[in-house]
Every structure is written in structure tokens, then in C-alpha cells.
Design brief:
CATH topology of the largest domain: Rossmann fold
Largest sheet: 4 strands, parallel
Radius of gyration: 19 Å
Strand content: 15-25%
Structural class: alpha/beta
Order of helices and strands: HEHEHEHEHEHEHEHEHEHEHEHEHH
Shape: globular
Number of strands: 12
Number of helices: 14
Number of domains: 3
Distance between the termini: 42 Å
Strand order of the largest sheet: 2-1-3-4
Helix content: 40-55%
Bound molecules: 1,3-dihydroxyacetonephosphate, iron/sulfur cluster
């Protein structure tokens, strides 16, 4: 089948099922181009919470589809490629978090959405990189905080808010490999370019950037900036979005390879098959779902 045939089939099946296709900014271009909505984790969670579609097809990684199911227990949520995961989300288990909480009585647990439903269920409130500062600032000033699982996002929040937190030692293997040396080399090559990075990069890299933002935040920053040229410190799929929205601006990746393989597992064939067979359906045990939903809903109640 040609790409056009596949796209037509996807459209047909989507209409039959009253489905909506949500895609993250790191998805392959052909998936972004045919999705009903493309966004960052926060925007996608909000879309998932508000949709009136019967079926949510999530083109992203497992924790994102799981969050959509937590917020929509009555809807069918499909993740076209079941093994598309987030290695950072696997760096903390609910059992490890329970033990950490026991060692820190009285602490509030703030959990990055890049985590499992079981870990969210052990948490007081979730955050994404777009609303992390507001979520942490919403907690009473004298409230001690445990932050899981991203130590780099946690360090950036501490730096921005001046607030101490205990950080779980997780990280994104894709963003964490960006070095200050690589960014300095790009700055040397493109001295006019403005450096914008995602908060999952290491602190010494964030310190070199003009702005540190979630993916949607980077897009907004670039759109509003008078600058023409940018060095972008996040996953390479995002360049498709940036070029589409800002065709007259120039973008350089902060390192030659900036690839999240899990985000590239879905293609048109797999998406068509997922709609055809209604697979893979995401399920979350009800007791875990309810507790995870509380942490997600608390997050959604706080302005991003
Ligand atoms: P955003 O919330 O900025 O989209 O980030 C999600 C993610 O997985 C970054 O690696
Ligand atoms: Fe997870 Fe990193 Fe991939 Fe984002 S880029 S989904 S944090 S592994």
C-alpha cells in the first residue's frame, strides 16, 4: 500500500470508530502530519481529558497513553506499538518509591508524568516540564519535597525556584547525553544562533541556554523571538514541528544525533493496523487508576 492509501485507510477507520489521533512532537513527520492534535505531554493530557471521541489513539510512548486511560476510564485508549516505552519512566518502581517515602515522612511527592501509573498512584501531584515550576510553587513553602524520576528536571526546578528538593537519580538517556562541549561547539559554528533546550538536559548544559522550555514552550519561544537562527536541545523529531510552524527560521540540533528510538516505533502501517484491529488497548487496574488520577487531576487544576 502507498502512503496515500494508508492515510486514506486511517481516515476511514478513524471516522468509523469516532477516534481521535493524538501525537507527540517527537513522532515521525508522517504521523504528526495526519494526527488530529500534536503537542507536548501537558497539551496531550489536556486533549485526552477533554475529548468527546470514543477511542483515543495515542502516538507516543506508553506512559502518555496510560495517562490518557487514567483520565478516561470509559474510553478505549490504543497505543499502536505496545513496546514503545520511556526508559526514564522505568527508572523508578512503585516499590522503590514507597521505600523512599518511608525514609522521608512528611514529604510531598511530585512526580514527572514520565512515570508508570503505579508510581503516579504513590504521588501527591504530577507535573510535566511545561508546568513543573507552577506545580512546585503551588506547594506550601515549608513543605519538603521528593521529586521523581528526573534528576535533571528536578535540578532545573530547584535552580529556578530556589527551593530544595530530594531528587531521584533517574534521567532521560536521550537528553542526558547532550554535553556542554557539544553545545559550545555548535555555538562556535553558529554564533548568531539562540540556544533553547529541554529541561531534561544536564544542568551544565541548561546553564548555557538562553531558554529552558518544554517542547511546546520551545515552539512558543521560537515563534515569539525576533531571532532567525536557533540551536535546539531536544529530540530531533521536534525539528519537523519547528520548520512547519516557522518556515523562515533556521534550526540546528545541539548534537548530531538526538534520537528517541521509542518515539519512532509507530509508522503509518502500524497506525493503520492499530485502528483496524483496535490494538493495543491500554488498561490500568481500577484502584491504581483512581489514585493516579488524583495526582494527574491535581496537576491539571494548576495553571501550566
Ligand atoms: P514534553 O512534555 O516537553 O513534551 O516532553 C516529553 C518528553 O518525553 C521529553 O523527553
Ligand atoms: Fe523518555 Fe527521553 Fe524518549 Fe522523552 S525523549 S520519551 S524522556 S526516553
Amino acid at each position: 500500500m502507498t502512503s496515500q492509501d494508508l492515510a486514506a485507510l486511517i481516515e476511514r477507520r478513524k471516522r468509523d470508530l469516532n477516534a481521535v489521533i493524538l501525537a507527540h512532537f517527537y513522532q515521525p513527520p508522517e504521523i504528526q502530519d495526519l494526527a488530529d492534535f500534536v503537542g507536548d505531554s501537558l497539551q496531550l493530557a489536556i486533549q485526552a481529558a477533554n475529548t468527546d471521541a470514543d477511542v483515543i489513539v495515542f502516538c507516543g510512548v506508553h506512559f502518555m497513553a496510560e495517562s490518557a486511560k487514567i483520565l478516561n476510564p470509559g474510553k478505549m485508549v490504543l497505543l499502536p506499538y505496545l513496546q514503545a516505552g520511556c526508559p526514564m519512566a522505568d527508572m523508578v518502581t512503585a516499590e522503590e518509591l514507597r521505600k523512599w517515602k518511608k525514609e522521608h515522612p512528611g514529604y510531598a511527592v511530585v512526580t514527572y508524568v514520565n512515570s508508570s501509573a503505579e508510581v503516579k498512584a504513590e504521588s501527591d501531584v504530577c507535573c510535566t516540564s511545561a508546568n513543573a515550576l507552577n506545580v512546585v510553587r503551588s506547594l506550601p513553602a515549608d513543605q519538603p519535597v521528593l521529586f521523581v524520576p528526573d534528576r535533571n528536571l528536578g535540578a532545573w526546578i530547584m535552580n529556578q525556584t530556589g527551593r530544595e528538593m530530594e531528587l531521584w537519580p533517574g534521567y532521560c538517556p536521550v537528553h542526558n547525553q547532550l554535553t556542554a562541549g557539544e553545545v559550545k561547539e555548535q555555538i562556535r559554528r553558529y554564533p548568531e544562533a539562540v540556544v533553547v533546550v529541554h529541561p531534561e538536559v544536564p544542568p551544565e548544559v541548561a546553564a548555557l541556554a538562553e531558554a529552558v522550555r518544554s517542547t511546546a514552550g520551545i515552539l512558543k519561544y521560537v515563534q515569539e523571538s525576533p531571532a532567525r537562527e536557533f540551536i535546539i536541545g531536544t529530540e530531533e523529531g521536534f525539528l519537523h514541528t519547528l520548520k512547519k510552524h516557522c518556515p523562515d527560521k533556521v534550526f540546528h540540533l545541539a548534537r548530531t544525533e538526538f534520537l528517541c528510538e521509542d518515539m519512532k516505533k509507530i509508522n503509518l502501517e502500524i497506525l493503520a493496523q492499530a485502528l483496524e484491529r483496535q490494538e493495543h488497548q491500554i488498561e490500568v487496574p481500577e484502584d491504581i487508576r483512581q489514585r493516579a488520577e488524583q495526582a494527574l487531576k491535581r496537576m491539571l487544576a494548576i495553571a501550566p
